[in-house]
Amino acid sequence: MSQDVKLIQLLSDGRFHSGEELGSILGVSRAAVWKMLRSFAALGLCVQAVPAKGYRLQEPLELLDGALIQSVLSPRAKRLLSELELLSTVDSTNRHAQRAAAQGAKSGYVCIAEHQSAGRGRRGRTWISPFGANLYLSVYRRFHLSFAALAGLSLAVGVAVLKALHHTDLSGMGLKWPNDILWEGRKLGGVLVELTGEASGPCDVVVGVGLNVRMPKGAGEEIEQPWVDVRTIAGGRSISRNHLGGLVLQELLTGLEDFEQLGFEGFRADWLRWDLAKGKEVELRLNDKVVYGRALGIDSSGALLLDERGTVHTYNAGEVTLRVRDDTVA
Ligand code: BTN
């Protein structure tokens, strides 16, 4: 374990610790402690320094705990998990999972990080990923299906995340096509699915999920769209990040296997149940144009059905952005 991670662990209780105490536990000088603490800003951690009291984190942290996460998994999900790797900091869990797969990790490999330095969203966006605050996780799975058969997978992953959230007492969350997880028009989480392989299969798939759990204010200010976190939805109550991570992993591992067996049909009814745009006037931004219409849900492959002045058109998820033209859904 690096000195930085040890120092974060010491501070994770949210209490004051003197530079002297921290230095003596780590076996370094007070100046070295101060230097490390200053570098934490880059991780999105806010350290307060108060004369005569010492240093503390603005808020206590619940660090990732593999045993706690796995304790939530059913026997079936445990069988589907080949490895769970916890990372302190990484560029992107999706990239890390892709590298792991290229180096021989087995299908069912999962990584979860405390912090991403280059977290990636859809359409080339950055996913703001401060240390210890939210969930950033990726699952690698090999599918014996063609690219075409995987068309609805990213929507199915959205369904899996919503199911996980519904195992808590939170309510009001829904899906915006293809897979944005929203609450009252604000983004709670997102899904990034990346495929490699032969068009006819098999395909190596990395499924990345980001879920805002307890976004610090400073980090939240960097997000370019309306957002929300689990803590806000829970009315300020803190919900265990490890428990939530376990719930998400449970639904993802089993959901990906279900998808291989049932295809998107097995998820469509749930997706429609949580569709936030159904019946609303929407704007669809394609690469070269914008189209307007009324959202009619999705077809059996997960493509969006749009009523454009009486004619129904279908659109596949890809580099497409959907906006709902009223202020209840972003
Ligand atoms: C979106 O733009 O809605 C998708 C966001 C996906 C973010 C997650 S966080 C874990 C995984 N690693 C990444 O770099 N991105 C995904």
How does this structure look, described?
The chain is an alpha+beta fold. The protein has three domains: about 5-55, Winged helix-like DNA-binding domain superfamily/Winged helix DNA-binding domain (Arc Repressor Mutant, subunit A, Orthogonal Bundle); about 65-275, BirA Bifunctional Protein, domain 2 (2-Layer Sandwich), CATH 3.30.930.10; about 280-325, SH3 type barrels. Helices cover about 30% and strands about 25% of the residues. The protein is built from eleven helices and 14 strands. It has helices spanning about 5-10, 20-25, 30-40, 65-70, 75-80, 95-100, 155-165, 215-220, 230-235, 240-260, 265-275; strands at about 45-50, 55, 85-90, 110-115, 135-145, 175, 180-185, 185-195, 205-210, 280-285, 290-300, 305-310, 310-315, 320-325. It has a seven-stranded mixed beta sheet with strand order 3-4-5-9-8-7-6, with helices on both faces. A five-stranded antiparallel beta sheet has the order 13-12-11-10-14, with no helix packed on it. A two-stranded antiparallel sheet has the order 1-2. A hairpin with a 4-residue loop joins strand 10 and strand 11 (about 290-300). Helix 2 (about 20-25) crosses helix 3 (about 30-40), helix 7 (about 155-165) packs across helix 10 and helix 7 (about 155-165) packs across helix 11 (about 265-275). The longest helix is centred in the last third of the chain and has 22 residues, at about 240-260. Biotin (BTN) binds near residues 116, 119, 137, 190 and 208. Biotin (BTN) binds near residues 122, 137, 138 and 210.
Question: How many domains make up the coordinates?
Answer: 3
Note the overall shape. Answer: globular
Low-confidence stretches: none
The chain-level structural class is alpha+beta
Strand segment tally: 14
CATH superfamily of the largest domain: Bira Bifunctional Protein, Domain 2
The largest sheet has its strands arranged as 3-4-5-9-8-7-6
The small-molecule ligands in this entry are:
biotin
The biggest beta sheet, please? Answer: 7 strands, mixed
Rg, please? 21 Å
CATH third-tier fold name of the largest domain? BirA Bifunctional Protein, domain 2
Q: What share of residues are in beta strands? A: 25-35%
Count of separate DSSP helical elements: 11
* Average pLDDT number: 93
